[in-house]
Amino acid sequence: MKPGSLLRRLWALSLPRFWRQKAVRADSLNASPEVPRLSRPGETSRTPGIEQATMPERQSQSVAESSTAYQAGRDVVLIQGVSASEARQIAHDLFRANLMEFKAEAAEVARQRCEEVTTAFLEKLQTENPEGLNQAREPDFQDALFSVQKEHAKAGDKELSDLLVDLLVDRTKERSRTILQLVLNEALRTAPKLTSAQTATLAVVFFFRNVRRMNGIPHIAELGAHFQRSMEQAAAGFSNSASTFNHLAFTGCTTDSLAASSLPDVLSRTYPGLFTIGFEQAALEQAQLSDAGKAMLIIPCMDDPTRFQVNALNDEDFDAKCAAVGLSQEEKVRATALFKSYSMPHDKVQSKMVEAAPFMSDIFAAWSAADAKHHALGRYQLTSVGMAIGHASIKRYIGEFAPLDIWIN
Fold this sequence. Notes:
The protein is mainly alpha-helical.
């Protein structure tokens, strides 16, 4: 064997299987893998995906759909984009090239499952991010795609498949090597190691720790209805067992904050305008708000109509209303005291929420209770990977949801 041929084979052995097969095949033909190049005038390029046109002195161009034209001197190279059918073919070629050695019926089952998850991915991608089709040619994305195909081929689990598809579609939105791309790559490798109960647990913790409605919640009853729509299904399947807690930590999804946070306290800080007992007329007069400030900010208390409260759902809503009415800094400080100093007692927060959304009784119990076989959900702190999986899990329950880059950027 010639030294050059031997070196090429050693190099090929260092590649992933998919690329190794292509490299060895090229070596066996005594040729290097074909690379794109510009053709000489009058020569037709044979590089896949590239059309070569030789331009006469009076140049003209025609560009196919999904193509980009580049003109330089006498030659034009048309680099075509990736269509949905091409992306599907790339996905199937990728799976076949890397397919493990299955026997008879198992091979057919694996092929069918590959078709299922590829179809689900492409349909969702064309709806949410059609431009992501062009990533089908990127090695890093092909690795992520094959990971999804392989895991569904092995497990055949619909819930896991939907979760992986959501993560993979989000991955197509990251074209450069951002922190979010790295997190999503790791989430795609980690999610198959979790049970349905464990992904539901990540969804519950992510939702109550990190998600808040910015508007459209005028009363605790509406907040309860919002929680019911968003989290009732996840709440029916989550687990706070010690084994779940330990496994989520082992897979890098959570860390232990040691001390459990209080869910009523979390809710009170997230929605201070809902969980307030209000203040009396004397406190309002002492704040010395302008007439315009009173008109914008003060309403009868929802918990006790004989008292008053600040008309703001959360801190952002409060700041926006103060700016709209033009409160001075000193007046805003006094209004803030009214907004923050009359919080509802924690036991009343809990009873109000359970009344508005009965399933919340299980969440409150799991958030703080702990014994030899259980850990408090309030101890869970999600890592970036845990947040990505929890976020994708929430999308499975409620459909449209805020983009992940709000939390990871």
